[in-house]
From TrEMBL:
Keywords attached to this entry: Methyltransferase, Transferase
GO molecular function, one term: methyltransferase activity
Transferase as UniProt keyword: yes
Coiled coil: none
Descriptive protein name: 16S rRNA (Adenine(1408)-N(1))-methyltransferase
Biological processes, Gene Ontology terms: methylation
E.C. numbers: 2.1.1.180
Amino acid sequence: MRRVTGKQVVDITAAGYDELVARHQGVVLDVGTGDGKHAYHVARHRPDVLVVGLDAAKDNLRRIAAKAAAKPAKGGLPNLLYVWAGVERLPAELHGITEVHVLMPWGSLLRGMLGSDPTMLRALAAVCVPDAEFLITLNLHAWRPAVPEVGTHPEPTPSSASRDLAPVLAAQGWRLGRADYLDAEEIDALATSWTRRLNSSRDQLDVLALRGVVNPTDVE
């Protein structure tokens, strides 16, 4: 597992990661963390959990990763890891995920969350514990006009997500429990640079949130 600590990238062994997991009450995986601000926000407000911010572009992580790796007096967070890896090839050491966040996905990650890449959904499910919670937020302006990443998927609504997307997710171990639009306050609470940038460029930002569990243990 390759951890970004600023200008450096250091290896974390399986034993080292396991030790970190054992010291916390859960593990939050922020997939496609971008510049890492959401992961930092979660780690700062939830010191009892280990937060892993995962992204294939390490250069975007350097600034905040250096801050996270610093001493606590200088903003460091011992419960936060920034990992350089793509979701298509998750680190072999990664496991024990109790919560998955996929916020405003784009590119291949967006296609995966819409069900076009079942392998991606299965791979993420494989690193999650039973009944791990998930939060996926979709930028609906990706359909206005539609970008290539959305393919033939029409713009989702709460009802269409429950009707059409839920079965696709369920087939890969993701049970959709609720789909709803986020209001401005809820969007701001995501604490991502991407949502703030989008908010500043339009009168209203429309976001659909999908919530549920991965690897559900009860059978409906």
